Amino acid sequence: DAGVIQSPRHEVTEMGQEVTLRCKPISGHNSLFWYRQTMMRGLELLIYFNNNVPIDDSGMPEDRFSAKMPNASFSTLKIQPSEPRDSAVYFCASSLTGSTDTQYFGPGTRLTVL
Amino acid sequence: AQSVSQHNHHVILSEAASLELGCNYSYGGTVNLFWYVQYPGQHLQLLLKYFSGDPLVKGIKGFEAEFIKSKFSFNLRKPSVQWSDTAEYFCAVNARGGGNKLTFGTGTQLKVEL
């Protein structure tokens, strides 16, 4: 199994630009999570999906952030417009459905907004 | 809502020293508990997890953790650390019945010196 796949691995953009991060969960996993990691705030859950449906988006910072999961094998996290304070590592994780299931993390996307 | 506290933010040890990293959570109900590790430049990987049964859990690479319900704790231990254990360690809690949402602690940065 290839594990959780994220792209791009690194993204450098200028303030005001739109940024789209992509994630392919492990095949057969029904839950998908987006996290943000910063030095100041640690690892924060932004949003998670069960069976492609957003369940909890209370961690999404503001309206500039949006996430979609059009099918079981693909999700996007979009920031529009981006700001320097959005600079962070964004992780995607997936798990089988159920509260006892382990989450498997992707390699992350390091986003730098200049 | 559940929360997780990791009291040690930075730990420096010499090789062969024993390790104990503290983790406390606040949630009155039943929980699933996890320790994840993030090696430099890599994504989070599961070290061990506790769902039920024996409160002493063995994980990979010689790590273990003990769930003490009365203390709301799930401390991570290793009898003898190696240089390759240098990494950041995250404790995480999932409240049963709370969906798949994991709440992470702020992490403990461990540096093992030769």
Helix content of chain A: under 10%
Major sheet characteristics of chain A:
7 strands, mixed
Radius of gyration of chain B: 14 Å
Strand content of chain A: over 45%
Q: Helix tally of chain B?
A: 0
Residues in β-strands, percent of chain B: over 45%
Number of helices of chain A: 0
Mean pLDDT of chain A: 92
Measured by residues with Cβ under 8 Å of the partner chain's Cβ, the largest interface is: A-B, 25 and 25 residues
Q: Let me know the average pLDDT of chain B.
A: 91
The Cα radius of gyration of chain A reads: 13 Å
Tell me, briefly, the overall form of chain B: globular
Oligomer: heterodimer
Low-confidence stretches of chain A: none
Question: What string gives the helices and strands of chain B in order?
Answer: EEEEEEEEEEEE
Give unreliable regions of chain B as ranges: none
What does this structure look like?
The complex is a heterodimer of chains A (114) and B (114). Chain A has strands spanning 5-7, 10-13, 19-24, 31-38, 42-50, 53-56, 65-71, 74-79, 88-95, 104-105, 109-113. Chain A is mainly β and 114 residues long. Helices cover 0% and strands 54% of the residues of chain A. By secondary structure, chain B is mainly β. Chain B has strands at residues 3-5, 10-14, 19-21, 24-26, 31-38, 44-50, 56-58, 64-68, 73-78, 87-95, 103-104, 108-113. In chain B, strands 2, 5, 6, 10, 11 and 12 form a 6-stranded mixed beta sheet that branches. A 4-stranded antiparallel beta sheet of chain B has the order 3-9-8-7, with no helix packed on it. Chain B has a two-stranded antiparallel sheet with strand order 1-4. Classes of the chains: A mainly beta (114), B mainly beta (114). At the A-B interface, β5, β9 and β10 of A face β5, β6, β10 and β11 of B.
